[in-house]
């Protein structure tokens, strides 16, 4: 399918920026939810990248899920003239979040005598 160069560039830029694209299987949908282009152009452009091995496709519940592969990152980097230091959002490593310690301060135990252990005294 012939896709205008500007539309293909929008799709490739979004794919490189996010690392993933989700498209509903609706070929008559006038606009894609995320990208400002026709949904048919998105599906067909990513179908082409899938056949070249640059994108992995998963289909579930009438939605296409496209994930960028390592070869796809290299291909889009050369096609879009993006420097080496920039990566898709799915490839960035987040710093581990600071977690509060579990439990906190509990204070002294409450209960009966002798450490709270109840047992009948034997004679």
List the uncertain runs. Answer: none
> Ends: how far apart?
96 Å
The ordered H/E elements are HEHEEH
The helix fraction, in percent, is 25-40%
The coarse silhouette is elongated
Class by helix and strand content? alpha+beta
CATH topology of the domain at 5-83: Arc Repressor Mutant, subunit A
CATH superfamily of the domain at 5-83: Winged helix-like DNA-binding domain superfamily/Winged helix DNA-binding domain
CATH class of the domain at 5-83: Mainly Alpha
Strand content: 5-15%
* CATH architectural category of the domain at 5-83: Orthogonal Bundle
What's the Cα radius of gyration?
27 Å
Count of individual helical segments: 3
Largest sheet: 3 strands, antiparallel
Can you give a write-up of this model?
- The chain has a domain at 5-83: Winged helix-like DNA-binding domain superfamily/Winged helix DNA-binding domain (Arc Repressor Mutant, subunit A), CATH 1.10.10.10.
- Helix content is 31%, strand content 14%.
- It has helices at 5-18, 39-51, 70-80, and strands spanning 20-24, 55-60, 63-68.
- A three-stranded antiparallel beta sheet has the order 1-3-2.
- Strand 2 (55-60) and strand 3 form a beta hairpin.
- Helix 1 crosses helix 3 (70-80).
- The protein starts with a helix and ends in a 43-residue tail after the last helix.
């Amino acid at each position: 399918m012939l896709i205008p160069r500007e539309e293909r560039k929008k799709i490739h830029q979004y794919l490189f920026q996010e690392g993933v694209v989700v498209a509903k299987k609706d070929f008559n949908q006038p606009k894609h939810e995320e990208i400002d282009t026709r949904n048919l152009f998105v599906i067909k452009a990513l179908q082409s990248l899938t056949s070249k091995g640059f994108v992995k496709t998963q289909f579930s519940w009438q939605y296409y899920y496209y994930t960028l592969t390592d070869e796809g990152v290299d291909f889009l980097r050369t096609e879009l003239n993006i420097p080496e230091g920039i990566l898709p959002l799915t490839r960035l490593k987040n710093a581990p979040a600071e977690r509060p310690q579990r439990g906190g301060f509990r204070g002294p135990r409450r209960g009966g005598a002798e450490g709270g252990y109840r047992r009948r005294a034997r004679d």
